[in-house]
Amino acid sequence: MRSIPFATKNLLIINIILFLATVVYGGSELAGETQYRLNDLLGLHFFLAPDFRIYQLFTYMFMHGSFQHLFFNMFALWMFGGIVEETFGRNKFIFFYFVCGIGAGLFQEAAQFGEFYFAVKNQLPDFSFADIAKVAHNSGNVLNLWTTVGASGAIYGILLAFGMLYP
Questions:
Q1: Between these two residues, 59 and 124, which has the higher pLDDT value?
Q2: Does the model's pTM come out above 0.85?
Q3: How far is CA 165 from CA 48, 50, 71, 80, 104, in A?
Q4: For a designed S-S bond to 148, which of 44, 64, 103, 136 qualifies (C-beta 3.0 to 4.6 A apart)?
């Protein structure tokens, strides 16, 4: 752990600690998968869902849905993050990591909005763009299930940076 640069090491530690806290805090079974309570609070909900909070654009990057999800994200961070951090410098690396993670969250929100809009449009023939808030309000319980977790967006940014720096 001593050879891992500061920011990469701390991102690894934070993600592992929060996953352990998620498992300890517990969850429930839904369709054969564990739904962790902490992911419901800190995971990124669809922006029209009642449980959406703006801070989730930041916190979702530290939550993971399973050990495998955590393992592969942290393995990629360990493999490539340190090299990118040494090339960029600590502050630029941290900024880049969070811009990629938040940017991925915003793209996820846009994709979910498109999915929501077209799903409703196919089911309600008289649906117009002005009706979105009303339909979303009436579909709150279902929309709360659209939760995104994981550092994958930030990790893909690091992989892209590594590939561009060392083709």
A1: 59
A2: yes
A3: 38, 41, 25, 11, 21
A4: 44
**Residue 30 scores a pLDDT above 70:** no
Instruction: Give the integer Cα–Cα distance in Å for 120 and 142.
Output: 13
Tell me how many degrees the CA angle 102-108-112 measures, rounded to the nearest 5. Answer: 145
pLDDT per position as a tens digit, 75-103: 999 999 999 999 999 999 999 999 999 99
Residues 6 or more apart whose Cβ sits within 8 Å of residue 100:
153, 154, 156, 157, 158
Q: In this structure, is the dihedral angle defined by the CA atoms of residues 13, 80, 162 and 105, taken in order, positive or negative?
A: negative
Q: Is the dihedral of CA 127, 128, 133, 136 positive or negative?
A: positive
Q: In whole angstroms, what is the distance from residue 49 CA to residue 71 CA?
A: 29
